[in-house]
Amino acid sequence: MSAIIIDGVEISKKVREDIAAQVIELKEKGVTPGLAVILVGDNQASKTYVGSKEKACQQLGMHSVLITMPESVTQEELLAKIKELNEDNSIHGILVQLPLPKHIDENAVIETISPSKDVDGFHPVNIGKMLAGQDTFYPCTPYGVMVMLEHIGCDPAGKHAVVVGRSNIVGKPAGQLLLNKNATVTYCHSRTENMAKYTKDADILVVAVGKRNVITSEHVKPGAVVIDVGMNRDDQGKLCGDVAFDEVKEIASYITPVPKGVGPMTITMLMFNTIKAARTIHSL
Ligand code: NAP
User: Fold this and answer.
1) Residue 73 lies in a domain
2) Is 120 among the residues known to form the active site?
3) Are 106 and 164 in a shared domain?
4) Alpha-carbon gap, residue 232 to 210, rounded angstroms
5) 144 CB under 6 A from ligand 1?
6) How many domains in the chain?
7) Domain span at 207
8) Cβ(206)–Cβ(164) under 8 Å?
9) Is the pTM here over 0.90, yes or no?
10) Residue 6 Cβ < 6 Å to ligand 1
């Protein structure tokens, strides 16, 4: 039997309805949640992402500020802008769109953002809190994955979760959030030998690699829940994931498509984190 397709657009819509209601409530209490996005340089993909974030803020009635800086901006200038936003009472979330030009130290930038406004969840303080199982800002994409699992009624407790990919922004935090929910977690990566040995045992398989067809039916256990984070282009230039969708959907119990799977959840969780920041900062 073919898997149930997890509709990221639909889940995202439901979460956004909740966010919109929270924005109204906060505004009634005199607080408009505000997100500042800093875009450095001319990267077209970054411009598109930033545009989507601004649009989401506007649709939800939130305050949004876009700060654009030239590719030639110095690290000092960028850090000074972040420090200014850390002090700005109308801003609750600060996001610096990555990647940054090579002459700028990404870690220094992330560490300058106040942990209480770090809605991307990349600051070492927030990563540490996540590791310690504390409530904090979780990185938006893996957080979106967890919300999707919750939505389909998949409790990770006691399950074997295999995460393919170990980046700081997706793979590692995805595994940690699954562990926090009592899954038994295995990570696979480019140095893993005989990856199918691990993936074939997964009850929950999260794939965040960035290569088409890295997961085929041979890698998947019948009945597994498969979450495809990858975003690639096929030979026709169409968006596709890391999982060979057509064949894996015949084996899995649930599967996310690409597009309309994990993608829509990422920006939604950014908005969610911004509301959380506003509530925390104003003790509401
Ligand atoms: P990344 O930083 O390039 O990390 C890729 C990971 O995949 C690395 O850990 C790498 O292992 C591992 N890997 C590479 N080749 C592999 C192979 N053949 N078998 C097993 N593991 C392999 O990428 P990322 O930022 O995590 O993003 C991953 C994908 O998710 C990309 O397609 C990206 O566009 C997409 N993405 C989507 C969203 C969304 O909102 N939907 C958000 C973020 C990212 P090593 O560590 O050993 O190099």
Assistant:
1) yes
2) yes
3) no
4) 6
5) no
6) 2
7) 140-263
8) yes
9) yes
10) no
